[in-house]
Amino acid sequence: MKRNIPLLITFIAGFIIIISEFIPHYPFGSVKSGLEGWFLIISSFAIILGNLNLIKVNILKIKFKSQNWKYSYVTLISFTIMLLAGVFWGTQTKSGILGSGSGIIAQIGDKPFDYLYNNVYQHLSATMFSLLSFYIASAAYRAFIGRTVEAKLLVFSAIIVMLGNTSLGFLITSGLPHSLDFLQLPNISEYIMKYPNTAGQRAIMIGAGLGIIGSSLRIILGIERSYLGGE
Amino acid sequence: MKKLFFVILCLSSLFLFAEDFSFSVKDNPNDNGSNLILQWTKPADFNGRISIKRTDDSGTVNISDLAKNYKLDYNLHPDKSYLYSFEAFSKDGKIMFDKKVEFKPVDNWFNAKKLPFLIILLLISGAIVYYIYSAKSGKELYIRKISGLESMDEAVGRATELGKPILFVPGINDIDDMQTIAGLTILGQLAQKSAEYGADLIVPVSKSMVLSTAREIVKESYLKAGHPDDYKEDSVFYLTDDQFGFVAGIDGIIVREKPAANFFLGAFYAESLILAETGFSSGAIQTAGTAMPSQLPFFVAACDYTLIGEELFAASAYLSRDPQQLGSLKGQDFGKALLAFILLTGVILEMLNIHFLKNLLIIK
Predict the structure, then answer these.
(1) What mean pLDDT comes out for the span A188-209?
(2) What's the CATH code of the domain at B261?
(3) B328–A217 C-beta distance less than 8 A
(4) Domain contains B47
(5) How far is B150 from chain A (nearest CA, A)?
(6) Span A6-47, pLDDT tens digits
(7) Residue B322: its pLDDT value, please?
(8) Both B168 and B77 in a single domain?
(9) Please, which of A184, B83, B325, B361 could form a disulfide with A173 given CB 3.0 to 4.6 Å?
(10) Taking CA atoms, what residue in A is nearest to B290?
């Protein structure tokens, strides 16, 4: 019973979602948006669950002096400051329980929540994102030093695409006659991105789409049940 | 006589001029009765203005944006009747033409434009169900080896030998993404193996709904492996919903805990390479899988094994070795063959300047 009811709900919900794609008539036409609304409501409540878990895990780390427990103080203090700043003075468009904090805005130029968001959070986030440029270099280096035919092809096409996107690439082949325009590096680069690259990506997307159909059918028909927890 | 002739000429020219105006309302086909198509014509030399008003039981509304000769009036209700008043004014404000049309939008029971897709879906789904049941009846099915999934035993064994944990990240999307569900089904198998070998598992998640699902899955897997006491509730924990905050958290875990094996299976965006490269620098065996085409090259470059697109969705069936689930993979192969056939036919027809198939498969 514990397992059959969720399976039945999954079957009915999955089947209705599929047929609603082809039946615009009420109520089928609005089922999808309705269920999406339900999902949003449930996930909004689930945020509380996530936050409670975050607090619990970090408090336990501090309590039992687990490895690197001091970092948990940073998490908990940051969490509390942002929460209180939002609750007391609100965010950009909303007021908090102490109003809009016009006195604080006069001092620091923003509401405390927005001030912390713009001056601390965004910079930390940008720092993490900027790591990507270094990691791309190291990953590309490893991919390019491969000795297989595929790796050599990758290096060759990568060089063309990279050069084709720079002014140097244009300069190198700018001397070609007009009839050989197609051999200009920017044009070759555009061709590689537009055709072989897009074809490859679409092949992956078609495979993934079929995979999604297969997985969905397994779940709807109750063959795949591990998402319910084991079995 | 001359005067009469002049009057007749004027009247007939007026009549002819007026005939150039027309206004009609028709139902927008294949929709849920929320749209109507308004169409009108006006003489080529008309330089006045036109006005369309819609009246229903809630009042009268002016329809704007009438630059073209048609207008899709939307946000209507299929149970209501709407009265449209069309008026054409000359430059000096005189009414040259007016017409009233009452119309009720139709709530359609079938979207005929999607019929080809329904047929394709039924064929693919039918093939999947057929292979599932033929597998159930004992038919042997060959499934090619997927190295990324074969590596799971190696990764768990290595973690056990080194006494280091296994890190599993089910992507950064919520449970409504099929990739997250696919990742979580693999987590079940991995958790069971970890429980059998006695390796520690770390599962940070970025969505609260994923947290509760992942916890249930890991708990059940430990129970199934016969080691319910080894299950640690805090091994599955929430970090943050924020993309780069989540990455920072996981990078911290990788650097501090130095997991022996990392699994990145689910939906990933720009964080994919940051995670995979940090994992690479820690020396862990890495298996990644996603259906995000733009992130796959990063995983291929930085991980030992990569599940590409459909392999991620096939993982659960592959690992379970359940004939019914394996049968569904065969059905997917039929889908691939069918789509390859449609693609090739489409290419040939387009080269022959026949656009029938393209037009059939385009939903405008």
Answers:
(1) 93
(2) 3.40.50
(3) yes
(4) yes
(5) 19
(6) 899 999 989 999 999 999 998 888 888 888 899 899 988 989
(7) 82
(8) no
(9) A184
(10) A208
Read off the CATH number of the domain in which B91 is found: 2.60.40.10
Smallest CA–CA distance from A217 into chain B, residue: B125
Burial of A141 (0-12, 13-18, 19+ CB in 10 A): exposed
ipTM here: 0.88
Please give the Cα distance from A193 to A162 (Å, whole number). 11
Q: Considering only CA atoms, give the Rg of chain B.
A: 32
Q: How many domains does chain B have?
A: 3
| pLDDT at position B4 | 61
Encoded tokens for B351: 């080269």
What is the torsion angle, in degrees rounded to the nearest 10, for the CA atoms of residue B60, residue B66, residue B72 and residue B74? -40
Question: CA-CA distance, B84 to B149, in Å (whole number)?
Answer: 63
- Asked if residue B10 is part of any domain, the answer here is no
**Percent above pLDDT 90 for chain A:** 52
Residues B215 and B335 in one domain: no
DSSP per-residue letters across B318-358: HHH--HHHHHHHHHHHHHHHHHHHHHHHHHHHHHTT--HHH
Sorting pLDDT into bands at 50, 70 and 90, what band is A126?
A: very high
Nearest-angstrom CA–CA distance, B10 and B16:
10
Interchain contact B276–A (C-beta under 8 A): yes
**Cα–Cα distance, B130 to B125 (Å, whole number):** 8
User: What tokens were used for A67?
Assistant: 């490895």
| Residue A74 pLDDT | 94
> In A, which residues are within 8 Å of B117 by CB distance?
22
Interface contact B46, partner A, CB < 8 A: no
Residues from chain A contacting residue B189 (CB–CB below 8 Å): 226
What is the spatial distance between Cα A56 and Cα A74, in angstroms, rounded to a whole number?
Answer: 14
Q: How many CB pairs under 8 A join A and B?
A: 220
Comparing alpha-carbon positions, the chain A residue that sits nearest to B329 is: A214
Residues 130-159 of B with CB under 8 A from A: 132
Nearest CA in chain A to B256: A68
pLDDT per residue as tens digits for the range A48-72? 999 999 999 999 999 999 888 999 9
- pLDDT for the residue numbered B44: 86
Q: Using a CB-CB distance cutoff of 8 angstroms, which residues of chain A are in contact with residue B243? A: 125
- The answer to whether residues B260 and B160 belong to one domain is yes
In this predicted structure, the answer to whether residue A147 has a pLDDT above a threshold of 80 is: no
Q: What is the mean pLDDT of residues A104-119?
A: 92
Task: Extract the tokens encoding A195.
Answer: 């055709």
Residue B346 structural domain: 112-127+325-360
Question: Which residues, numbered 17 to 56 in chain A, qualify as contacts with chain B under a Cβ-Cβ cut-off of 8 Å?
Answer: 18, 21-26, 29-30, 39, 42-43, 46-51, 53-54
Residues of chain B predicted below pLDDT 50:
17
Whether residue A226 and residue B320 make contact (CB cut-off 8 A), yes or no, is yes
Nearest-neighbour CA in chain A from B22: distance (Å): 30
B325: tokens are: 């689930």
* Among candidates B176, B182, B245 on the partner chain, residue whose Cβ is nearest the Cβ of A39: B176
* pTM for this predicted structure: 0.85
